[in-house]
From TrEMBL:
This is Uncharacterized protein.
Amino acid sequence: MDGIVDEEWSAFLRDWDAGGDQEVALAEMVTAEPDRHDWRVVDAALDRLVCSGCGDRLSRGPVDCSACDLAHGFRYAAIETDRPGVPPGNEHAVRVNVSVVRRPQGNSENEVLVRRLVLPVLLVGLLPTTEEAQRVSALIKRSSPAQKPVLIEQAIEEMLRR
């Protein structure tokens, strides 16, 4: 999953003709103006900066780190463009799922589990309907911990058959 972010960052570095010694300065520039860059570039830039509050990668620290919370929120100011050949909204779904999986501490275990298991489906260009998403959510809420992964996988298989 980090690969989809890192690939975009590598391309960004090539476009800017920037070397490794310029990476932190470029990351600082990107995070200062997230609304001018693709969300994948912004996420990658955040990964290259250290939080002054908690010492973790910026935006990935504990929920009570105000600097990480602020950076996490700013990531949603970035540009989001649907990839060719996917339904409208797929890129947004990819972005949200990646965000949850990369910073799980701000979400319930159920949410992280569903987002992690659905992400590959999104990456191949599928997009669950609202009804499918609500059905999976209801299944998860009323299932035992052991049943949850199996039920999610079954729901994903059903989505793939449609």
